[in-house]
Structures are given as structure tokens and as C-alpha cells.
Specification:
312 residues; Na+/H+ antiporter like fold
Length: 312
């Protein structure tokens, strides 16, 4: 039975994820600028349309809000604990490491992985977790990473609202609500389902191109210090286990638990590199964690799926 779970999981990942990842990797190594041309329209238009297509197919329900709140509150609580408890702060001392250990690639890899391994009825939990993670990353990430000044120590309301409105997941949900308002949800759902899957494939390619670009950089990408190792351990093992315990305590069913645990177990998000580069803060560390956690996740995601089948 265990071998069957493993084979099915690896097969699903290979068919739906790995070919696009490899293609993107080769593309990124050959033409590093290609990622920029694909990523911008993808984030601005593609991901919101993809979220719309997925949600219109299944419909929005309270599970999306529950999952978003779960992701946002858990990440916020953990980053607070890390910074107030000395033993944790010593292991993961700066915000780049902390964000890399808590913010997963839920949009570009998490949703495709969930679609490959779980039934479509879990999509609200999957997208909700992505929404909560994305909002936390883009609301608080820039404020954590930017240089401290008297005017920038505390997030301003305008900045928070801009991050909320400009999140690709938020835009997709706003689009769904507009479709409901004008009663065109069924028509749009039918038309957007196929484009949504194409956008997801492009998102995986973007992850691959980013990995290819990283390998072109100078320096030993796999030369990891203890702090980086702890950040990767937090991202791929500790965070999913914490979410597992919370799911147990909240009596989530198998599919609800599987959706959020898989999202929690995704590798480090591309957004951590984008923010590190934007603010000139430890870009090399962010690159190493993204690259290494993505490679390791090709092993840990199937193991996580087996763990869920056995213990949930």
C-alpha cells in the first residue's frame, strides 16, 4: 500500500510539475531575461485569471476565509515567537531567513501540486492558504526588510491596503465577486478553466527559470551555513508539522488537512528573492534557500503526501 501511494504521488508530480520545471530551468540558464518578460504579465493578469477560473469552477465558500486566516495567523505568530525567544532568534537571526522559512511558493507551485495530488473540491482551502501567505509576505515583508527609519518602522494603512489590493490572489477573488454580481459566473467558469490550467503551467516554468538563473550566479549555491539549513528545516518540515497539529486540533477532515499541509510544505517563495533584491538585503542567502528548498521539496512533497495518507 505504501509503495502504491509513493508511485502514484511521484507519477502525478512527474506528469504535472517536473517537465515544466525542467523546461523552465533550461530556459532560465540559456536566457536569464526571459523570466522577467513572462513573470510580469503572469503576476498582473495570469494568476488572477487562474484564481478566477479555479474558484468559479468550484465556487467560493467559508473554507477560503478559514484557510487564509490560518496561514496568515500561523506565519505571524511564528515570526513573532522567533524574534522574542532567544534560542530561535539565534538559529534564524534575520528577516530574510525567517521569511524564507515561513513563506512558501503557494501560488507558483502550491496550487499546481494541490491540483496534481488532490481533488478539485479542496481548491478553496488551497487558494485560501495561498491568499493568507501572499498577503502576509507582501504586507509585512517589505517593512521587515527595508532599512529602518523613523517614518518606516510601522506599516502605514495606505501601504497595507495597496498590498492587499495588488495581491494576485486578491484580484482573482475580486474578479469572482464581480462575476457573481453580474451573474456571469457559470459562463466565465467554463471559459476560464482551460486558460487557468495553462497559466499554472507557465507559473511552474517561471519557478524553473528562476532556478536556472540562480545557477548562473557566481558562488557555490549549495554551500549552506547552519542558519540557512535551519531556515530550510523550518520551511519543509517544521511548518507543515505545526499545520498538521493545528488541523488535528480543529478537526479538519482529510481533504481540508491535506490541502493546507501541502501548501505549508511548499518550498520557499520566489517573493523572498524579489524582496531581498528590491531592498538589497542578503540576496545570496535568499537565492540559496529558494534553490535548495525547491530541489529538496521534490522528495519531501511525496513523503508528505504519504504521511497524510497514513496519519490523517
Amino acid at each position: 500500500m505504501l509503495n502504491k501511494y509513493l508511485i502514484n504521488t511521484i507519477y502525478s508530480l512527474f506528469i504535472n510539475i517536473i517537465p515544466f520545471l525542467i523546461f523552465g530551468f533550461l530556459l532560465g540558464k540559456k536566457n536569464p531575461k526571459i523570466s522577467k518578460y513572462i513573470a510580469r504579465p503572469l503576476i498582473r493578469f495570469g494568476i488572477p485569471l487562474s484564481v478566477m477560473g479555479l474558484l468559479l469552477k468550484e465556487g467560493i465558500d467559508i473554507n477560503l476565509i478559514k484557510s487564509a486566516f490560518l496561514a496568515f495567523s500561523v506565519i505571524g505568530s511564528l515570526i513573532t515567537l522567533i524574534n522574542i525567544i532567544p534560542i530561535f532568534k539565534k538559529r534564524i537571526p534575520n528577516y530574510t531567513l525567517q521569511l524564507a522559512g515561513l513563506i512558501g511558493n503557494t501560488s507558483f507551485l502550491g496550487i499546481p501540486i494541490a491540483l496534481a495530488l488532490l481533488p478539485s473540491k479542496t481548491i478553496n482551502f488551497t487558494i485560501g492558504f495561498d491568499l493568507g501567505t501572499t498577503l502576509f509576505a507582501w504586507i509585512f515583508g517589505p517593512f521587515f526588510l527595508q532599512e529602518k527609519s523613523n517614518s518606516n518602522n510601522i506599516p502605514n494603512i495606505k501601504g497595507l491596503l495597496n498590498a492587499l489590493i495588488n495581491s494576485p490572489a486578491s484580484r482573482g477573488i475580486i474578479g469572482v465577486l464581480i462575476a457573481y454580481l453580474f451573474q456571469i459566473d457559470e459562463i466565465l467558469g467554463n471559459y476560464l478553466w482551460i486558460p487557468a490550467r495553462i497559466v499554472i503551467a507557465l507559473a511552474i516554468i517561471i519557478v524553473g527559470t528562476r532556478l536556472g538563473i540562480i545557477t548562473n550566479q557566481k558562488g557555490r549555491i549549495l554551500d549552506l551555513n547552519e542558519e540557512i539549513k535551519f531556515s530550510i528545516l523550518l520551511k519543509l518540515f517544521i511548518l507543515p508539522f505545526i499545520i498538521f497539529l493545528i488541523c488535528k486540533s480543529l478537526n479538519f477532515n482529510f481533504y481540508q488537512s491535506s490541502a493546507v499541509i501541502l501548501q505549508a510544505g511548499t518550498p520557499t517563495a520566489i517573493s523572498t528573492i524579489l524582496m531581498a533584491e528590491a531592498y538589497g538585503v542578503k540576496q545570496q542567502i535568499a537565492s540559496k534557500i529558494l534553490f535548495t528548498s525547491t530541489l529538496i521539496s521534490l522528495i519531501t512533497i511525496p513523503l508528505l503526501k504519504i504521511f497524510m495518507n497514513l496519519f490523517i
